[in-house]
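Today's session is about reading a structure prediction critically. Students often jump straight to the picture, but the first step is always the sequence itself: look for stretches that repeat, for charged clusters, for runs of hydrophobic residues. Only then move on to the predicted structure, which in these notes is written as discrete structure tokens rather than atom positions. Here is the chain we will use throughout the hour.
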Amino acid sequence: MKRGGFTLVEVMVALAIAGLVVVGAYRIFAGVADATRAIGTAREDLDRRANARRWLKAAFLSLEPPFEGHIDRVSFTSWQLGVGGWLEPKSIVLMRDEDRFTVQGSDPRLDLARGVKNVAFDYLLDPGVNTRWVREWISPVSAPLAVRLRITGCGRGDAGCVDTLLFLVKERG
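Below is the predicted structure for this chain, in token form.
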């Protein structure tokens, strides 16, 4: 007499195959979720760096003397958005604070880059072929033509990476 059904071995093989399929599907979905998080983090980092560069460009283009520039920090007055959307002059200090490149004087403190090992500023004296960059610029009445900013570490965890940025300053005077 023949009985229609599955043997115990067939059931065990089917369960083992189903288990492998479930584990494989979980790994695929976990990998997709991890990749999505990594892409989101990379996008936020890229947005932060782009916004920092836009902010720096606007700050240098709207700066007002006095201007005090050292190798490791720079301070000046810049026109920034204030309460109610009006532009107001604010004292700005750009410097490295621990592992961050920050703007002191903004409320709240603004971090322009993270993972920074060093920050160095240079200041352009005159335009032309024989131009000179100096390490300090302290003047109550004028500002340099441009500011060169070198960020070591670049915020990407690579201590050997140096990002060099050049910012034009509005006309002197």
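Discussion point for the tutorial: The radius of gyration is 28 Å.
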